[in-house]
Amino acid sequence: MKILVSGSTGLVGTALFDGLQRAGHTVCRLVRPDTSSEGIRGSHGFDVNWNPVSGELGGAAVGADAVVNLGGAPIADKRWTPERKQLLRASRVDTTRALVNALARMAARPRVLVSASAIGYYGSRGEELLTEESQSGSDFLSEIAREWEAEAVKAETLGIRVVRARFGVILAKHGGALPKMLTPFRLGVGGRLGSGQQWMSWITLEDVVGTLRFVLENGAARGAFNFVSPEPVRNADFTRALAKALHRPALFPAPAFALRLALGEMADALLLSSQRVVPTQLDKLGYRYLHPNLPAALTAVLA
To answer: Which end of the chain is flanked by fewer CB atoms within 10 Å, N or C?
Structure first.
């Protein structure tokens, strides 16, 4: 397939780009006009001009079979000021709206759109087992995810198959949440977050690429998909598994009040929330995980 990818320079986009190429697909990065060489084929495929503000999509997009929409400002890089919250929302919701509008103007439209979302869609739900059918939450991340997905779903009216990819915590050695977790453990001061009883739903970067390929290539995949491993764990269990993988102790818990003092609203949304999410739709379609088990997954990622 010829596949257009937005957000191709991020953690997932970079890995997906390489994975799709190895699988024999032609991969085209959607990049801003001032950074691209549109239509010039290189070792990576093509660059395609994409201006998310004006909604202009370059002519090199013609003939695309699929689009993977991964754009969005990093959630955890900065404290959530009102200005930062607006950027987080606009970089997801407004950009997806512009992309779908651009697809609508194409004479020959792609067959499938895979659009990123997150399990933040569900909010903090304690012990509740969450499937793709579970209701959305009511916090800031839930609101963004609902609006984000609503814009992607509009592509269905264009005859495009839409998959909404609700990513869990992505485990990768050189990006995402894991490297930030590693430092205190390597210094011997790691520990659980808050009570440690909150559920964490995780997935390795390798399985993220695998699941994205799976839904792109499987015509039966449509609607919401939880991109998580089949074995969510409590934070305390994650902490013990990570400490064991690093051969370090896990004796210094981070109290909830200290996390809230340091990070504000982000602490509850990203570190203390409990999301026990399972991949019902991926299981139903028969995706076979490379790393379904946390200890083995951490060993593979940290190798």
So the answer is: C
pLDDT recorded at residue 199: 98
**Residue length of the chain:** 303
Rg of the Cα atoms in the chain:
19
Is the confidence at residue 25, as pLDDT, over 60?
yes
For the question of whether the overall pTM of this predicted structure is more than 0.90, the answer is yes
- Look up residue 146 and give its amino acid: R
CB atoms inside a 10 Å sphere around CB 69: 27
SS3 183: helix
How far apart CA 291 and CA 294 sit, in angstroms, is: 7
φ, ψ dihedrals at 201, nearest 5°: -110, 120
How many angstroms separate the CA atoms of 242 and 236, rounded?
A: 10
pLDDT at 37 over 80: no
Q: Which two tokens stand for residue 152?
A: 């992607």
Amino acid identity for residue 4 in this structure: L
CA distance 291 to 75: 25
Q: What are phi and psi of 12, to 5 degrees?
A: -70, -45
Q: How sure is the predictor about 131, in pLDDT bands with cuts at 50, 70 and 90?
A: very high
Q: Are the C-beta atoms of 89 and 76 separated by less than 8 Å? A: no
Using CA atoms, how far apart are residues 42 and 34, in angstroms rounded to an integer?
17
List all residues 6 or more positions away from 135 whose beta carbon is below 8 Å from its beta carbon.
122
Mean pLDDT of 281-291: 97
Rounded Cα distance between 206 and 208, Å, is: 5
Cα-to-chain-centroid distance, residue 67: 15
Residue ranges in the chain assigned as alpha helix (H) = 11-22, 82-89, 95-104, 140-153, 178-186, 205-217, 235-246, 256-263, 265-266, 280-285, 294-302
Instruction: Give, in degrees to the nearest 5, the angle at Cα 285 between 11 and 144.
Output: 45
Return the SS3 of 232: coil
